[in-house]
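Reopening closed ticket. The problem is back. First fold of the pair:
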Amino acid sequence: MSIESYVLKLQQEKNPGIIEKLVLEFLSGLSWLYGKGVNKRRIKAQKQAVKVSVPVISVGNITAGGTGKTPCIMKLVQILKHMGKHPAILTRGYRGKLEKVGGIVSDWDKILLSAQLAGDEPYMMAMKIPHTPVLVGKHRTASAQNAINMGADILLLDDGFQYWKLKRDIDIVLIDCTNPFGGEHLLPRGLLRENLECMQRADIFILTKTEQVDSQIKDKIISRIKQWNNQAFIIKSEQKPAGVVTYENWKKNIPIFLENIENRKAFLVSGIGNPSSFQTTSEMAGFIITGSINFPDHHCYVNTDIEKVTQMAIDSGADIILTTEKDAVKMMPISAIPLYILKIEMNFSGCGETVIKNLITSLK
């Protein structure tokens, strides 16, 4: 078990033993230091924050791990294009080879970089959202100016809630209903990236994965949000399976309808922030799950990984291996058993889309 896996398991332990309690106390000390560091960086960055000539919409979260930022970004691009806007996406490109120096993953016409250079999520967005520039680099103020020079008239700042060097016009914060407040502790004791008072900065909260919890839990989450911020809009969203594609057809963007694969036995493989959510969505699609393997977030697959996954899938009695689109950009063909990709999309409930459109319309 990796250190990361051990800590995640320990964070969720309800009855820790003596040794576990000592480890948690140590992690609490690290969390205190982490919190002090975050506050210091935020104050410094906000004093130096840059305002650019076009509106900036930040999409971020308060916890580490997968909350649904990428599906949300893609949904917002769809909305903006329907409104006649020309958006560009600014993202860090975590673990991509151009993370430090920056680069243009795609322009208005084509993809310009590989997944290894761009990073898995930026490359996936470039594939799924054609004719929309995607720019990577930790210096997103520089990316913003490059995007404006390319003709973008509105910018989407991916994972931007803790990026304070670029001023934004709308701050959207995603709250994962399956783990909304990160165990109530800062990293590494819990999953919070900032203290909960940071929610006062948000303009919109989007509850994600609402389909995976009951109404009572959702109501409690909303009440908790309002304790910190009763001015922001709160929107509910759902992440649902949108299609299933063979690895080969996924590269060609050829869909296969969900009903064609219902009740097939699937072995799950993923390297994402919230693998349990992937399993739930896979079950919603109609798959029978025979087993799974979870790699660290942003994992880069090598031949030995594929060999291990293939053997585990066969031993479990699976008909297919099922993975995410984020993983697929770093996968390689598997010959012994079919490899499928589950496509997921986000939809806003009620008048959520109207609220977002009205706020965008009000921007100058």
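Second fold of the pair, where the issue appears:
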Amino acid sequence: MHQYQLVEGDQTVYRDGTIKLHTEEGFEGMRKAGRLAANILDEVADLVKPGVTTESVDTAIREMMLDGGAVPATLGYRGYTHSCCISINHVICHGIPSEKVFKEGDIVNVDVTPLLDGWHGDTSRMFYAGEPPLKAKRLVDVTYECLMLGIEAASKPGARLGDIGHAIETHAKQFRYGVVREFCGHGLGRLFHDAPEVVHAGKLGTGPELKPGMFFTIEPMINLGKPWAKVLSDGWTAVTRDKSLSAQFEHSIAITDDGVEIFTESAKGRHQPPYA
């Protein structure tokens, strides 16, 4: 049986396995954090180009967070020393910024989480460095469709957590893509990572009931090849075992009385590449 906890005001919350249900104050906090996160990725669209270092993008993101009154939630998190994650081509997630430069045709995921007034705005988007191959573009398009189908599944009355994963997995399998299971979405709010875990594959009608006030991320990681992942010796970078391309999109959302609210939607309409 899944336990739910009502969170009100400035109440201290703990990662205790309960699924948090937030009030309007929480919604307002997440709207601000999510808006800043989305605005930052809108600007990143103009930074990802062949010849640009991933470190320079990380620096720009850190400055944008600080200018927005936030701090990077990833900076110092479990020893991580950067302000975002930048994952290129066969890197599934948690790619570490460095002096590595983007190359023509790269597909790139940039994942940001500003911590603003105690609330986490967690989101990621795919970007193109130059002109990628057609198979890469198709993977990116399908991954975005998977995200939005997962959100649509969450918006239905009486939905359960497994419905999200079922919608994502069903769509990805039509294209014979692999759905990564080693990494998943998660509850968030005042905590960076909290219950529930949002696995991107599942069965209809299973898992916790989605109740108004729940905040969590949906962030499908879809591989062009097999679904299997491995983490490199740096302890962070996750890559596809078969070196196939991987793509990911992520939104932070809330369950509301009449559906869902997306906290991290682009105000400029820059939802998926190519970006005008």
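Update: turned out to be a display glitch only; the data is intact. The mean pLDDT is 97. The chain has four helices and 19 strands. Please close again.
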